[in-house]
User: Fold this.
Amino acid sequence: MTRPGTSSLAPPADLDSAIERIRSHGGRVTAGKRALAELLYAEQRSLTADEIVALLGDHDRSAIYRSLAQFEELGIAEHLHLGHGQAVYRLAGLPTVPVLCSACGATFHINRSHTRAFVERVSKHTGVTLDLTHFPLTGTCQQCAATIR
Ligand SMILES: [Zn+2]
Ligand SMILES: [Zn+2]
Assistant:
């Protein structure tokens, strides 16, 4: 199982660096891996494994899973848990933090810079460095709040 933050590697600067990283870590850059990397860079958003399989079309599902695991180890991709469903994958190092409505499942994104003061305060008081990406911040969205009221 891949745990978040196990990759000590900073996110690659671009697609070419990502491909180069796979190669320099002894991985063969198959057509499938290249297509997966291209997809993650093109989409810049979270996708379920099913969505990735569908978008890639003619690629072996288990090969895609293995590639995703390798991409996580290499710091190219990361996975998130949005709600109780399956994990979603996205490019590592995106500047956004997911915020989820636990009533309707709507997902919002805020810029990481807006969380900095809070993250620093929690770290100062507890020594815990928050990872706000692996599990999203959850709450009730405006629409759901209006319905409940
Ligand atoms: Zn996880
Ligand atoms: Zn909602």
Notes: Strands lie at 47-48, 77-80, 88-91, 96-101, 107-111, 137-139. The helical segments are 15-24, 31-43, 49-56, 61-73, 116-126, 142-148.
